[in-house]
Model the fold of this input.
Amino acid sequence: MPEPKLILDYVYDHETTQPDKVYLTQPVGGAKVADYTWAQVLDQARRMAAHLQGRGFERGARIAILSKNCAHFFMAELAIWMAGYTTVAIFPTETAQTVRYVLDHSEASLLFVGKLDTWPQQMSGVPADLPCIAFPLAPRTEFETWDAIVARTDPLGGRPQRGADELAMLIYTSGSTGQPKGAMISFGAITRAGEGFSNYTSDRMGRETDIRLLSYLPLAHSFERSCIEASTLVSGEAHVFFAEALDTFLQDLQRARPTIFISVPRLWLKFQQGVFAKMAPKKLDRLLGIPILGRIVAKKVLKGLGLDQVRTASSGSAPIPPDLITWYRRLGLKLYEGYGMTEDNSFSHASNEQFNEPGCVGVAMPGVQVRITDQGEILIKSPGQFSGYYKQPELTAASFTEDGFFRTGDLGELRPNGLLKITGRAKELFKTAKGKYVAPAPIENLLNIHPLVELSLVSGVGQPYAYGMVVLSEIIRPLVREPGVRSRVESELGQLLKDVNQKLPDYEHLSMLVVANEPWSIENGCLTPTMKIRRGRIEAAVAAQVEAWYASGNAVHWA
Done:
């Protein structure tokens, strides 16, 4: 019986069967783009692979990439794999300290430097003796360039193979609770995840051949790496576009007109708030309820977002408010929630036409096994499962059951029809002074759906009741200094507090809402590179004020 195909086998087949098909489209400034066919992608990757081999690194050596998403990230990864090495991708927003930690911990032998916004602040994290190669869109550096190397190097020939158990990549987690951990991903695991997502796409798109995607979520994270890169390397059917910059995101979306769109809750919320900035929620709701006109308005809204061609959309990486899914579906966008982790290459659960319900993350994907412990923890065994944490055997051993299920740390409920509902995260549970545990994520979802709120955090360890902290929406923040606006915001937040508490058991009631004094961002350390909130960082920043807030008895405070 032949061995199952691995991801490079699929790539070599595409190179042979459809060499002239455009695979990647990269913005290169202004309205200009560069298209790369499968033949061109593989030609550049083969030339770089030959160069890497010529440096004499031992097989399995770790080669790092520090770059925003771009076509050359894909090419570099293929080059690393074909040359016999292991990829270590670093989030492009990381500090110099974290860049240095990942490079040292992984024992990286070389670094590719690509598209970056904060390279002057990051460059001190790169050891002076580490060889570096600059991508075409990298900031100005003294490093040798990708283009110069591929221009002088003959391509590596044949179909270089990797074993299913060999390490394809180390994925360092985004570090929301401390130092990032290196998840070891084998070629077998990333291939099975890529196949799974490719099949999932085919099932939902039917006979659709014009599959377009926009790659903009960090490729250093497993969500984008599996759902976009690995799945398209396996299928060979998709055309992947890249975003140029945050300021050009809407133009990039308009260029790509994606037929599949994957995002995270924070961005789905920001899209909604952008719509509300142009049309009040009540007015939009009224128009959507009018026959015929409602469909016209919905199409216009989606076209304005660049999502009018989307056949299927997904949200992952963090919980999304159920009401937000319902809102998008009312516009005609088939938005489904999924669930996965770095440790299973994000290949775990997904919603579909048959099994979906706002508030649930879907059913187990093919080959995935799930069970819930007596304590409510979700255990997963996935074909995309990682091999363990790099250099942390004790943590690896503690993360698995005796029969090989991964302990996710998430709490959940499994419906009779297989739908999984996430009810919280064990590490995020906190106990109030009354001895009751509070799960913050479901309460935060109730807050996040309000048009005034961009993000929220629920806390209150050891206090009589929990409290909520909110970041005001981007639309409202500039207006709060205008006469009367602040008092109206306080009034609306006070009503939100009452509305949320009515939906909660007494022991989960919020005593107050606190308005954050600045937006939470990756840059100020309050969000991870995958836009999850860093609870400890935020809580520590306001710790000195908490007692005074509780003592005042006010329903709304300004931090």
Remarks:
- The longest helix spans residues 187-205.
- The chain has a mean pLDDT of 92.
